[in-house]
Amino acid sequence: MDKIYIKTEFIKLQQALKLANIVGQGSDAKIIIQEGYVYVNDEKCTLRGKKLRNGDKVSVKGEVFDKNKDMEFTIASYDN
User: Fold this and answer.
1) Residue 68: is its pLDDT beyond 80?
2) Label partner for 46 (CA 20 to 30 A): which of 9, 22, 29, 34?
3) Is the pLDDT of residue 55 over 60?
4) What is the C-alpha to C-alpha distance for residues 3 and 35, in angstroms, rounded to an integer?
5) Closest among 80, 12, 65 to 35, alpha carbons compared
6) Which tens digit of pLDDT belongs to each residue from 13-51?
7) How many domains does the chain have?
């Protein structure tokens, strides 16, 4: 599982999806979040402004992409 490193206390879900290169634009993130394809800590999340902190796990269902596998990453602080 990939890690996204942040220097701040939190990062918003929409920003994290862009940083992880899962989407190219915020509008793409908005769509997949609202459609229910994004999970935070194994719970469906439809809030694009959800604050992610160190240790949070994000997964995106693979059927959104032209891929057969889900994409996952965790948020990590540079301090860890």
Assistant:
1) no
2) 9
3) yes
4) 24
5) 65
6) 999 999 988 888 888 899 999 999 999 999 999 999 999
7) 1
Q: Between vectors from CA 48 to CA 6 and to CA 64, what angle results, nearest 5°? A: 100
Polymer length of the chain: 80
Domain that holds residue 70: 2-77
Residue 42 has which token pair? 């194994």
Q: Are strands 2-6 and 71-77 parallel, antiparallel or unpaired?
A: parallel
Q: The domain that contains 22 carries what CATH number?
A: 3.10.290.10
Could you tell me if 22 and 59 are in contact, meaning their C-beta atoms sit under 8 angstroms apart?
Answer: no
Element (H, E) at 6: strand 2-6
